[in-house]
Each structure stands twice: as structure tokens, then as C-alpha cells.
UniProtKB/TrEMBL annotation:
Known cofactor(s): Ca(2+); heme b
Catalytic activity: 2 a phenolic donor + H2O2 = 2 a phenolic radical donor + 2 H2O
A family per Pfam: peroxidase
Name of the protein in its database record: Peroxidase
Listed GO biological process terms: defense response to fungus; hydrogen peroxide catabolic process; response to oxidative stress
Domain called Plant heme peroxidase family profile: residue spans: 2-301
InterPro entries xrefs: Haem_peroxidase, Haem_peroxidase_sf, Peroxidase_pln, Peroxidases_AS, Peroxidases_heam-ligand_BS, Secretory_peroxidase
Originating organism: Gossypium laxum
Amino acid sequence: HSTRVGFYSSTCPRAESIIKSTVESHFKLDPTIAPGLLRMHFHDCFVRGCDASILIDGPNAEKTAPASQFLKGYKVIDDAKFQLECECPGVVSCADILALAARDSVVLTKGTSWAVPTGRRDGTVSKASDTDGNMPGFQDTVDVLKQKFAAKGLNTRDLVTLVGAHTIGNAACEVFSYRLYNFTSTGADPSINPAFVSHLQALCPQNRDGSRQIALDTGSADRFDTSFFANLREGKGILESDQRLWTGDLTKKFVQRFLEVRGSLGLSFNVEFGKSMVKMSNIEVKTGTMGEIRKVCSKVNEY
Ligand code: HEM
Ligand SMILES: [Ca+2]
Ligand SMILES: [Ca+2]
């Protein structure tokens, strides 16, 4: 068994359009759900595969882990699930809703669409401790990032492409401001463009509210474009792990290729993104009779 495009075409033909219109209506009220849903799908896939384990409530569930702290978009998934249960009860998995909502979020921020293979089933286990060692960290070196992606069947090209998701959305000052103050004995992280440091310090003042938000792609946080990679070239990456893509030999080559508009080595970020997302969305998927189709995305079924 594997996933395939159009898995619900006979069992719930309107599934994809119901999800799309739900994401759209939430996006109109709160555009920050687009980056939120894209990130949620990534976090789901890297822990126990794309099985909606991130959505399960519980005292020690995945969503309580530090890595899940700022995830958002749970309500959108619950809303879509509620409507799908009215239309075709017990058919559409929460894991597929997440995968489709991530794609729809990219489209809403003016990225290019791709066909999402479906047929995932939902897992029944969610443990905060499972995030350890699986989720990439913003202080990880390029080698560690490569290893963590390789462990999920994703290569260096996928790594650079998928981190390009940071072309939309925000980070909390608390995951980043350590780079601005006393990073070295002389001040800020030298990999930040010196002309950019005071601007960032104004956005994330020392010892102030760490939950303040800062755009991951300065000047283009709401548009799915290659500006994020141009910012890395200028030393304007926000996360330490993002800026490091410009220091790794091979990772830097891919960043450069995304910025190459013409020429034989140029790569289209939007085309590559769809391809790498299909790979990520297929990490350790449960299909066939594995797992279940949850009735409510925040809890496993009771029998
Ligand atoms: C090297 C691997 C990655 C690391 C270390 C990383 C880390 C982070 C961190 C620390 C944040 C900020 C969270 C916050 O403070 O609110 C963030 C945000 C985000 N990440 Fe990643 N990430 C990685 C890869 C990815 C991938 C593969 C995707 C999706 C395909 C993704 C999508 C996002 C999005 C869209 C946001 C913005 C969220 C929002 O605005 O709500 N990230 N990431
Ligand atoms: Ca999962
Ligand atoms: Ca952007």
C-alpha cells in the first residue's frame, strides 16, 4: 500500500475542496494560519511519520513538547474534520487533512500548487519524548540537519528546499535573540550582516517579551517566493540554522541555484518545493489497515 493522488475521488469526492475552502475562510480572518499549517505538517511528519500524532491531546502528548510550543492551526483542522465527518463519516484521515491544508496554505501565499497523494491513516500514539532527536533544532549544525533529514529519507537538496518554507511566517524573539546580544565577547553573531543587527535589536529588545514575533523572511513574510534565499545570501537569515545553509558547501550551492534565474544550474524553488513536499508527506505513512481514521482529530477513537 502507498498513498496516491485522488484517494478520496469516489469515497468522498468533495474532500479536497472542503479542506481548501475551510483553510481559505480561516486564512481570510487570520493569515498567520498559512505558515502555521505548513509548519504543523512538517512537525507531524518528522515524528512517527505523517500520521496526525501532533494533533492528539494529552498530558505528555507531542504537542506539549518544547518543539511544538508555537504551533498553530489546530482549530482549522478540527473545523475541516467536523465538516468532513458530516459529508462522509469515517473516511478522511486527519493526517491527510494536514497534508492537504499545508499545500493549500502554500497556494494561499502565492506559491505553486502540487498534487498531494492521499490515503494516509491516523496513528494512535503521541508522546512528547518522541520529538527528541527527530525534530531539527535551530541551533543544529548543517551536518546534524543533514543527518536528521537523511533519517527520514530526505537528501540535502530536500533540506534546503523544505527549509525554504521559512519564506513565510514568523519566529518568536526567544528562539533568535541570543544571536544579537553577547553571542561573542564583541557582540552579535558575526554571521549576521553587521548593517542589519541594530534593526533586529529594535525588533527583539534584550530581556523583553520573548514571544514577540519576527519575520523569518524579512520584507516578504507573507509571500511564498525566493526572497528567503536572497536574505541568506545577504546575511539576513533569522534562525541560526537558516543562515548556516549559506555556510555548508552543498547547501550553499542549492541556495545559489534557487537564486539563479536563468542559466543551466538554475532551479525553480516553487517546482522543487512541491516535489520535496511530496517526499516529506510520505514519511513513514500508515496505509491500508494500519492505524485508524480518527473521528475527532484531537483524540484517538474509543471502541
Ligand atoms: C532545519 C530544519 C528546521 C528548523 C530548525 C526549523 C525551526 C523553526 C523555528 C525555530 C521556527 C520558529 C518557531 C517560533 O518561534 O514560533 C520555525 C517556523 C516555521 N517553520 Fe521551520 N524549521 C525547520 C524546517 C522547516 C520545514 C521543513 C518546514 C515546512 C516544510 C518549516 C516550516 C516553518 C514555518 C512555515 C514556520 C513559521 C511558522 C509560523 O509563522 O507560525 N520549517 N521553524
Ligand atoms: Ca506524526
Ligand atoms: Ca517570502
